[in-house]
Design the sequence.
């Protein structure tokens, strides 16, 4: 009977088993059991002090991407979820949130240098006023505005000036860099204001105006004199 004969051991079985184990070893680290695939690590941080409501705040610091998924996670306050990725913030929350992120990250890096916040806001406005995030590079500056002086003030000054002279380009001198180079007032803040009234003042237009008390006192004095003269 053939069933009673011992079967020959398959010599390929150990090789197949080893190959399958190697495939599992390569593929298992990429299998997401739970969580978000773009988040590589998460750390829970507990605050040392309680908040105004007397509750202990717990922060979850996530390394990686997935801002939208983190904001919609159960137990996470989406209104207080932040990301230091400017590009991801723009894609999820919009260009205004990306502008805020730029200012916040510059403030963190330059915190001990006592920089005026207006300078950081100005830089963030320049990078985002086109509706997209433009870097402060020669490629980003070229997309912002076709200004010869602005491009020449950053890098490759002779190349930009020679190219502008060859193509007879014009510069309207409207940006911050152009105004500084030309020694003019910048068109921001007080420099953005212009006189809209002609300077043809009358003789009494620039005199000092009487206060309300002085007007009342003069009126009372005039009335008293008229009364005395009538008597």
Sequence:
């Amino acid at each position: 009977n053939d069933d009673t004969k011992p079967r020959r051991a398959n010599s390929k079985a150990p090789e197949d088993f080893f190959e399958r184990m190697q495939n599992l070893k390569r593929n298992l680290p990429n299998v997401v059991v739970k969580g978000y695939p773009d988040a590589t690590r998460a750390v829970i941080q507990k605050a040392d002090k309680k908040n105004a409501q007397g509750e202990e705040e717990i922060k979850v610091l996530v390394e990686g991407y997935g801002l939208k998924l983190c904001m919609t996670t159960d137990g996470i306050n989406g209104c207080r979820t932040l990301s230091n990725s400017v590009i991801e913030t723009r894609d999820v929350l919009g260009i205004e949130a990306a502008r805020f992120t730029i200012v916040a990250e510059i403030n963190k890096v330059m915190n001990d240098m006592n920089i005026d916040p207006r300078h950081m806001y100005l830089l963030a406005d320049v990078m985002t006023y086109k509706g997209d995030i433009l870097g402060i590079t020669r490629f980003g500056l070229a997309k912002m505005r076709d200004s010869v002086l602005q491009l020449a003030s950053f890098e490759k000054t002779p190349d930009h000036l020679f190219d502008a002279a060859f193509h007879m380009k014009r510069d309207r001198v409207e940006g911050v860099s152009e105004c500084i180079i030309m020694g003019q007032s910048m068109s921001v803040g007080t420099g953005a204001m212009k006189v809209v009234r002609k300077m043809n003042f009358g003789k009494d237009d620039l005199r000092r105006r009487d206060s309300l008390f002085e007007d009342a006192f003069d009126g009372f004095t005039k009335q008293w004199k008229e009364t005395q003269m009538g008597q």
Observations:
- The beta strands are 39-46, 58-64.
